[in-house]
Every structure is written in structure tokens, then in C-alpha cells.
Amino acid sequence: MATLTDDELQQALTQLNGWQVEDGMLVKSLRFSTFPDGIAFVNRVADLAEDAGHHPDIDIRYATITLRLSTHDEGGITAKDTALARRINALSGR
What we know:
Blueprint: H1 6-13, E1 20-22, E2 25-31, H2 35-52, E3 57-61, E4 64-69, H3 79-92
Antiparallel strand pairs: 1-2, 2-4, 3-4
Helix pairs in contact: 2-3
């Protein structure tokens, strides 16, 4: 799977609320009201990631969860990343 071109990536970002590109990865941070709420969300993301066979980097800072997506074997952002980002947005409702 090839990495997205700049144009493809910009087009995808118009449909990925809250996601941005940082250091060659799709990145989104979500703040939850409590630590357990954030961890419950991470567990739901883990289920999505397992189903997709594609796993985000996840940073947990108390109730703030930051997700980073890239396709490491391809060296950048691919359609796998944008697809998982859409599923994460649907899961979070944000």
C-alpha cells in the first residue's frame, strides 16, 4: 500500500475532524473527564485496531489520550491510517 500524496492527505483531512499531520503521522488528542473514561476509550480503540490489523501509537496522560497513526512498513500515512482514523472518530463521536 502506497503512502498518500500531499493532495490525497489534504483531501482526507477535510473528512477527519480533529486529526492533523505531525512528523509524518496523523495525530489526534482527546480529553476525557476521568482517567478511567480515557482508559475505557483506549480499550475500545484497541479492539478496533485488532480488527483492522493496524495499531496506533497511544500516549496516555491522565485523561488526555493522544493517538498517532502511520504505516511504518510504508514509511508514512496510507489509506489504512485514514480508515482507522475515521473508525476512531465514529467511536469517539468527536
